[in-house]
Design a protein that fits this description.
Radius of gyration: 25 Å
Strand order of the largest sheet: 3-2-1-4-5-6
CATH topology of the largest domain: Na+/H+ antiporter like fold
Order of helices and strands: HHHHHHHHHHHHHHHHHEHEHEHEHEHEHH
Number of strands: 6
Oligomer: single chain
Largest sheet: 6 strands, parallel
Distance between the termini: 61 Å
Number of helices: 24
CATH class of the largest domain: Mainly Alpha
Helix content: 55-70%
Shape: globular
Length: about 550
């Protein structure tokens, strides 16, 4: 059956690997990579035959991931981290690449060319792995996660000059004119893609929507992503990078949210192909023959990248857990490392030994990344026990009036806005804490006393006078932020009453264990209210009261 049977084998193996990973409380991508090792050409048992064709499909997975990332990017959301991304990103890439190249020459005995390629690969982190990890842990809206996404965007864009510059190492004579020509072509192509995309893509999608077919809309969205990617590849750039640019362009239109929701299931299936393919490239024999070298290099990559990224975060004013989350979260080698590696081998500039070492370390750092990331907060807490936190370098807008016995409202989204308006209507003293500067500006425009900053940071909570507050209301829709906010608030004010939002129903028990006074799960409450209204209109008022009470007791516990 050829590629059809291979596709079935990959999906089934990925399902089994994902189920085992979930049972072991590991991220799904670890199960996918393990499944790829089992069905790869280097292990016994069922084996994928058409590996090259599957790799081509996996490239579509990378493209769709970056396309969806582009759709999700809001330049407004990245405003608080733009300085870190635009200045810190290039610094991190250059420092990490130089460190990798030096290690390759001094300690691994690689040639200068091999070492430079290796350093370039090490400098890149995995957008796919980081997004999957952030999504699984519910930490997609914190300042640290936005800083990570900002750096990832900078790294993804840096692939363009890397793909232009690195091949010139084969012949340095006349390299500058060739480099200038290639850079000029890249700038022209990207500018044309952005200009045409802003005008052509929205117009195309409007025409498709006018036909009244959701199916055609999905096809048009995917065609836009992979079509722009193919155009970029034809111009000598990266296929995945072109899709990323298409996503960024489309994110500025009114179609971005629906396009993202439609493309996510397709992205996840092709993403499974990518991770299984990554596992298939893993050669256990190479690891066995070079076990010590592989282990040391993998450890070196994780530790050195974590130190560089964490130190850079501190230098740019990030404190508390943020440097740990950023450093360990971005300590892996990314999927663009495969792109660079294949480009180097294809051009005859990267030896097979260096290629195998880089490939193996990339796979290992990717597979270990979720486990390494999960150690960020425990290590950060351990560090804080030995070192007093430094005061933040970020500015905060403080309310002018004195606060005592007030309510601290964390977040000014829809829930936080409703709480703040009700408190103001009831003449209750309160202060809003909001990280999104646009939302903070809205709060100020609405006449709300507000503090701008990351509510997970104790200094920001102190600015909101949490030590003298009566109640803390945590409305932010991010699981990790809710937990960190509660923990830090309890540390400063152990008896403050806390009303917290549960992002998922499974979070209720965890928040109760943290000592939260009252837990609210918005989606559950919405369903309960719809049930109550339905029963009332059916003339069953008594049943409505009883059933609503039983449902709430089943989730939150009896009062």
């Amino acid at each position: 059956m050829g590629i059809a049977s291979d596709f079935v084998l990959i999906v089934v193996a990925g399902l089994v690997g994902g189920l085992l990973a979930r049972l072991l409380r590991l991220p799904l991508l670890v199960g996918y990579v393990a499944a790829g090792v089992v069905i790869g050409p280097y292990t016994a048992g069922p084996t994928v035959v058409q590996i090259h064709d599957i790799e081509l499909l996996a490239e579509i997975g990378v493209a769709l991931l970056l396309f969806s990332l582009g759709l999700e990017i809001s330049f407004r959301d990245l405003q608080p981290v733009r300085r870190f991304a635009l200045i810190g990103g290039p610094i991190q890439i250059l420092v990490t690449a130089a460190m990798g190249a030096l290690a390759g020459i001094k300690f691994l005995g690689l040639s200068a060319t091999d070492s430079i390629w290796l350093g370039a690969m090490i400098s890149l982190s995995s957008t796919m792995v980081v997004l999957k990890t952030l999504s699984a842990t519910g930490m997609t809206s914190t300042l640290a996660s936005r800083a990570m996404i900002g750096l990832l965007v900078a790294q993804d864009l840096a692939v363009i000059p890397m793909l232009i510059i690195l091949p010139q190492l084969a012949d340095l004579s006349g390299a500058l004119p060739r480099l200038a020509r290639a850079a000029g072509i890249a700038v022209v192509v990207l500018a044309a893609m952005v200009a045409l995309g802003r005008w052509l893509l929205p117009m195309l999608l409007k025409r498709v929507l006018a036909l009244g077919s959701r199916e055609l809309f999905l096809v048009a969205v995917v065609a836009a992503g992979v079509g722009v990617g193919y155009a970029a590849q034809a111009a000598g750039l990266s296929f995945a990078l072109g899709a990323f640019v298409a996503g960024i362009v489309l994110s500025q239109s009114e179609f971005s949210h629906q396009a993202l929701s439609d493309v996510v299931p397709l992205r996840d299936i092709f993403g499974l192909l990518f991770f299984v393919t990554v596992g298939m490239l893993f050669d256990p024999r190479f690891v066995w023959e070079h076990a010590v070298e592989v282990a040391l290099v993998t450890l070196f990559i994780i530790v050195s990248k974590a130190l560089i990224l964490g130190s850079l975060a501190v230098a740019f004013g990030y404190r508390n857990m943020a440097p740990w989350i950023i450093g360990l979260g971005l300590s892996q080698i990314g999927e663009f490392g495969f792109v660079l590696a294949r480009s180097g081998v294809g051009a005859g500039l990267l030896s097979q030994t260096a290629y195998s070492l880089a490939l193996t370390c990339t796979i290992l750092t990717m597979a270990l990344s979720p486990l390494v990331s999960s150690a960020a907060i425990p290590l950060g807490r351990l560090w804080q026990r030995w070192r007093k936190p430094v005061q933040p370098a970020l500015d905060m807008d403080l309310p002018k009036e004195p606060l005592e016995g007030h309510v601290v409202v964390a977040g000014y989204g829809r829930s936080g806005r409703a709480v703040a308006r009700a408190l103001r209507a009831g003449a209750t003293r309160f202060v809003v804490v909001e990280l999104d500067h646009a939302m903070f500006t809205l709060a100020v425009a609405d006449g709300m006393p507000a503090v701008w900053g990351d509510v997970t940071r104790e200094e920001v909570l102190a600015a909101a006078r949490i030590a003298r507050a009566r109640i803390l209301v945590v409305t932010v829709p991010d699981r990790g932020s809710v937990q960190l906010t509660v923990q830090h608030a309890r540390r400063v004010h152990p008896t403050v009453a806390v009303v917290a939002r549960a992002v998922r129903e499974s979070d209720v028990a965890e928040l109760r264990a943290l000592g939260v006074t009252a837990v609210v799960q918005p989606e559950f409450e919405g369903g309960v209210e719809m049930l109550r209204q339905t029963l009332i209109y059916c003339g069953r008022d008594g049943d409505a009261i009883r059933l609503v009470s039983e449902l709430r007791d089943s989730l939150y516990g009896a009062a």
